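User: Hi! I'm working on a homework problem where we have to compare a predicted structure to a textbook description. Could you give me the structure for the chain below?
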Amino acid sequence: MHERHDDRAGSSADTYRRRIVDDELDELLGGLPAVAIEGPRAVGKTATALQRAQTVYRLDDEAQRTIARADPGLLVEGEPPVLIDEWQRLPESFDRVRRAVDAGAPASSFLLTGSASPKDPPTHSGAGRIVRVRLRPMTLAEREIDTPSVSLRRLLAGNRAVVTGRTKVKLNTYVDEILRSGLPGLRALSGRLLRAQIDGYLSGIVDRDFEEAGQTVRRPQTLRRWMAAYAAATASVASYEKIRDAATGDVGVKPAKTTVQVYRDVLERLFILDPVPAWLPTANRFAHLASPPKHHLTDPALAARLLQVDASALLRGRSSGPEPLREGTLLGALFESLVTQSVRTYAQAAEAQVSHLRTHRGDHEIDLVIEHGGGVLAMEVKLAQVPEERDLRHLHWLQAEIGDRLLDSVVVTTGPAAYRRPDGIAVVPAALLGP
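Assistant: Happy to help. Predicted structure tokens:
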């Protein structure tokens, strides 16, 4: 039923490109019995897990799933580490691993990968037994568009580290990276081939993934319109009511709120929606902060394709999708989403948490708030080579509000150089920011 390590196709060490999450996995699996890698379909979970697995059970294979359903105990047998790939296809497999851990399985016993939370969840969450690790699309550092010279981990150290470096990466490269996607299997494609693959990916979500998640889509076009409206709200805190209205357009009949809630729930379970939560510290002075999440798809390439924009349209500020639900240009929103995608992976490697800040009236907003060890790194993302003074006012405000809790302040740009301003704020081109 299972595969041995030597039978792995296309995942040998000489073809695998190491990901940032690999260091985290090596550390966790070296001391823990079971680790689950989670993330959207085609993000590279299986390839990453196969670098460690000696025994492989592929539950996306109907034959192997049938055998496992008949005798689930087989799934915890074999030379470790044992990989159970796409475990959500047979939720009982998760419980089997949990029970094996409870029975005393040693470190490096089990790896699980999952592209969705199952419609019939395991009887136990696995908390305290199976550690979950998120894998997101490739970061800018992993795409190797340049060599990072500024480390997020060092910025989180709070000693206002020296910030230097120069890059030749310009705006057109960032636009290309927005459209190319960070899904490893798409990186070699371009033009019509790439667009066809992304269209197929999006169609698969509507036509197959929803059904596998236990939800029947009665009106596929309504779901597609809602996803496009969500894409139009990228990097905003637009209400779900406004997104629903934008999805309706001139159709006239709005989808029911319960229908929209199903869309959201399933797309989050599929790791397609990847909203950034609001920062809600306990300090009384921040009682006036708003709580809505900031909207992001797991990959800005999906948002761009849903809105039917190419490089020319982005650079000219044009979109054929729903009316925008945010301030500023679509390119600015997608650039922020591209940076956010990378920063969340860098922060995960540093054991830091990422959120965003917005006051109720919207008079103060900070794109990314990264918490670590009781301190805060504040980050703004600007589609500009050099930030203007008005771009910094929210960072100065936060400094005045929290004082020494502010570890550092950063503006991520499309410019050529990394440096510190006289006021201490670091200016870092996106291509030079790394883990």
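For your comparison, note the following. The chain has two domains: 3-134, 140-434. The CA atoms of residues 16 and 327 lie 40 Å apart. Good luck with the assignment!
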